[in-house]
Amino acid sequence: MDEAVNPPPRVGLFVTCLVDLMRPSVGFAAVKLLEEAGCKVIVPSQTCCGQPAFNSGDRATARAIARQTIEAFATCDYVVAPSGSCAGMLARHYPGLFIDEPEMAVKADAFAAKCCELASFLVDRLGVTKVSARYEGVVAYHDSCSNLREMSVAGQPRKLLASVEGLRLVELNEPDACCGFGGTFAVKYGELSDAIVAKKSAAVAASGADTLLAGDLGCLMNIAGKMQREGRAVKVRHVAEVLAGLTDDPPIGESAAGAKP
Amino acid sequence: MSVATTPRFKDNVHEALQDERLQRALRHSDNFVSGRAAAAARLPEFEALRDSARAIKDHTLAHLDLYLQAYERKVAESGGHVHYARNAVEANAIVLDLCTRRGARAVTKGKSMISEEIGLNAALEAAGIEAIETDLGEYIIQLRGETPSHIIAPAIHLSKADVEAEFRRAHRDLPAVRDLSQPEQLLAEARAILRDKFFSADVGVTGANFLVAETGTSIIVTNEGNGDLTQILPKVHVVVASLEKIVPTLADAAQLLRVLARSATGQDMTVYTTLSTGPRRPGDPDGPDEYHVVLLDNGRSAMLGSQFEDMLRCIRCGACMNHCPVYHAIGGHAYGWVYPGPMGAVLTPSLIGVAKGGQLPNASTFCGRCEEVCPMRIPLPEMMRHWREREFERRLSPVAARSALRLWGFFAKRPALYRVATDLMMRALHLAGGARGRFSWLPFAGGWTRYRDLTAPQGATFQSRWRAKSGSVR
Fold first, then answer.
1. Which residues does chain A have within 8 Å of residue B461's beta carbon, measured at their own beta carbons?
2. What is the pLDDT of residues A46-96, one digit of tens each?
3. Residue B259 CB neighbour total at 10 angstroms
4. Nearest-by-CA chain B residue for A253
5. In whole numbers, what is the pLDDT of chain B averaged over residues?
6. Structure confidence by residue, pLDDT tens digits, B237-291
7. Distance (Å) from the C-alpha of residue B391 to the closest C-alpha of chain A?
8. Within an 8 Å CB–CB cutoff, is residue A187 touching chain B?
9. Of the candidates A139, A217, A196, the residue with the CA atom closest to the CA atom of residue A171
10. Contact A191 B389 (CB under 8 A)
11. What residues of chain B, 90 to 149, have a C-beta less than 8 Å from chain A?
12. Residue of chain A minimizing CA distance to B414
């Protein structure tokens, strides 16, 4: 393609606070996938999407963070997040934060329209049909609630996973059931969250998968943490790592030394 | 009104999770999920019906005063009486007055959540009047001195064995050799006991699924037929219903009926759909001498025009709780008041105040499955968030949570400071937990690590690595 006529889309990576802080390798996997699909990736200075404040009833803080994020990504054609939850906050909830501020509401609407979750951005907007990656394993893909219900992401990551050499995909029983993470819910109602994730952990074990993938690091940390506490030997990773073929880093909650679960 | 244990929700949760009998019963509650999915799939126009159902209720709520007046006029024309009750005390007083004027000693009852909301049974018993629940599930829990744990399946927290044990305890004349191992046998046993009660009752109290303004008709849906006997046999029929049950026309009610049972049990229709309009007319083969409707407000009119108005569209199908991970984990009693599940999490603070009911809208993962299946498309998660906002504004949320949020917010609003601080913190945490890749315990993270291991960070943050690599973080 002639770049002078058709410059590559300028994609701002909204890396998400969990990936930024806990698992940078997911961010690099996202960058690799986007660049391979022909995007120019930039990473504006960012913190968090504001969801912890928004879901705790602190609208003022959520609004301040939203304003700052919208400004930071002003020059991007698209904003892509390796998370349905954070993408859902940007695309579905930012506009509602400014209903009493018309000028900002217009900006938030325009911003929301260019926000996308990673797998759906690759498949739906860029038309990517396959990736060049290899992963030996039986893989279960967990649908995060926000991906499934807020962002309509379900088929896209499965389509890309189907193109990964050596990978066999299995489905979980009750795939649309929540894992019990729910952000601060996991800590505020730890006992309840634990009872919910125990069911998901059992479903993963029953699926026969040796690897669990998902598009949201929150769910993944929750499920991995539960399975590791229960002594179940399932490797847990963000779907972007496998799609990008970047699986040298140890799975979530494990160390390079190969600590036994 | 019945007493709420909602303020001690966390204790209720703990008890429910430790209750092995309850946990066993909850494991069998998945049938509603597959039933609804199959019923919705069988009907091509189901999604369109949901849209029209929502439109019907939105229209009614926008003109509720008009339709209430029309309904009242029609009830009067058919020889019945409408009584307005602002709250539970007034509603109970009206029903009691109707009972004592007829010298009633026994009252049969069809299933009614409004009667649970106002605590009608307790009010009747206090006045020396026997209240007899005739819905099988309600009958069972009445014997056990319990409240419903589900709005359409009140005894869903019990097993067949629990019910058999209760009947053997309560039914004195039941021979020990009688086989009660099958649901049909339990039903036959309850029916035999209730038959006499139906004939001896002086007053029959039912709820209403819909009140039709066009005709002054009340509609109930049941699967056992008990509601029909309750409202036809006694001399007096009293309908207790809340004011948002009004719909304009019979055609509207028919539309709503098409989504109600499908969303609730997965049936196309319930076994009985019973319409009643006024008392017995000359020439009618049966029916009551008196027909009364007690219309309860109890905080609902204050929801009109508020952020919570959409909740008044609810037709009490129970789909939200049937699909709720929290309800599935703890059952209905843990919610601590009349209405459990997502609809209860929104409605309870409206009716008993956010100070008492505020735990419920907080105890949600916002998974959104409730909104996905709600036939009336009520944005339940959004309204739970509205309650959290009210709580936050009134400083009702816990101090520790508020402080943590404030500290986090301080950094999240300062990107440069945030970048440096988080990078240092993550490097330190990586060193502390890196050897194993995770923590079994970490200070201030007990809510997490008591139940799950906590992943250790990989070290330097993404933003710091990206900067080092490309220098392109602005």
1. 20-21, 24
2. 999 999 999 999 999 999 999 999 999 999 999 999 999 999 999 999 999
3. 24
4. B455
5. 95
6. 999 999 999 999 999 999 999 999 999 999 999 999 999 999 999 999 999 999 9
7. 7
8. yes
9. A139
10. no
11. none
12. A47
Would residue B239 be called left, alpha or beta, if left means φ above 0 and alpha means ψ between -120 and 50 degrees? Answer: beta
Q: Residues B203-229: pLDDT tens digits?
A: 999 999 999 999 999 999 999 989 999
Domain of B163: which CATH number?
3.40.50.10420
What's the domain range around B199? 33-301
Mark which of B277, B301, B325 sits at the end of a domain: B301
CB within 8 Å of A165: residues ≥ 6 apart? A133, A134, A135
Please list, in sequence order, all residues whose beta carbon lies within 8 angstroms of the beta carbon of residue A51, skipping any fewer than 6 positions away. A62, A85, A86, A89, A93, A183
Residue type, B336: G
Q: Do B369 and A149 touch (CB under 8 A)?
A: yes
Distance from CA of B49 to the nearest CA of A (A): 20
Q: What is the mean pLDDT of residues B365-376?
A: 98
Chain A CB within 8 Å of residue B472 CB: yes
Query: Shortest CB distance from B13 goes to which of A22, A182, A191?
Result: A191
Long-range contacts for B412-421 (Cβ within 8 Å, ≥24 apart)?
A: B412/A17, B412/A47, B412/A48, B412/A50, B412/A53, B412/A61, B412/A65, B413/A47, B413/A61, B413/A64, B413/A65, B413/A68, B414/A47, B415/A45, B415/A46, B415/A47, B415/A68, B415/A72, B416/A45, B418/A47, B419/A45, B419/B461, B419/B463, B419/B464
B405: closest chain A residue by CA: A53
Which of B422, B452, B474 best probes binding to A when mutated, by most A CB atoms within 10 angstroms? B452
Residue that is last in its domain, among B257, B280, B301: B301
Q: How many CB atoms lie within 10 A of CB A255?
A: 15
Q: Which of A64, A180, A254 sits opposite B413 (nearest CB)?
A: A64
φ/ψ (deg, to 5) at A166 = 85, -5
Instruction: Tell whether B442 lies on the interface with A, counting CB pairs under 8 A.
Output: no
A–B CB contacts, 8 A cutoff, strictly below: 217
Q: Is the Cβ pair A194, B413 closer than 8 Å?
A: no
Q: How far is Cα B115 from Cα B151, in angstroms, rounded to an integer? A: 12
> Is there a contact between A145 and B10 if contact means CB atoms under 8 Å apart?
no
Give the burial string for A137-157 (b: 16+ CB within 10 Å, else e): bebbbbbbbbbbbbbebbebb
ipTM: 0.96
Nearest to A195 among B17, B393, B466 (CB): B17
Residue B396 lies in a domain: no
Percent of chain B with pLDDT over 70: 99
- Do B50 and B362 meet the contact criterion of CB atoms below 8 Å apart? no
Q: Is A191 on the interface with B (CB under 8 A)?
A: yes
Residue B229 sits in the same domain as residue B100: yes
Contact at 8 Å (CB) between B426 and B461?
yes
In B, residues 15-74, which contact A (CB 8 Å cutoff)?
A: 17
d(CA A87, CA B232): 57
- How far is it, in rounded angstroms, from Cα B461 to Cα B429? 11
Instruction: Name the residue ranges covered by the structural domains of chain A.
Output: 10-123, 130-243
Q: How confident is the model at residue B158 (pLDDT cuts 50, 70, 90)?
A: very high
- To the nearest whole Å, the CA of B360 is away from the closest chain A CA by 11
Amino acid A261: pLDDT? 42
Query: Where are any strands of DSSP class E within A128-253?
Result: 134-142, 165-170, 211-214, 235-238
Decide yes or no: CATH 3.40.50.720 for domain A130-243. Answer: no
With an 8 Å Cβ cutoff, is B366 touching chain A? yes
Q: Is the Cβ pair A192, B330 closer than 8 Å?
A: yes
Which tokens in the block code for residue A37?
Answer: 């699909």
Domain tally for chain B?
Answer: 2
At B443, phi and psi to the nearest 5? Answer: -55, 145
> Rounded to the nearest 5 degrees, what angle is found at the Cα of B88, between the Cα atoms of B82 and B89?
95
Check B455 against A252: CB less than 8 A apart: yes
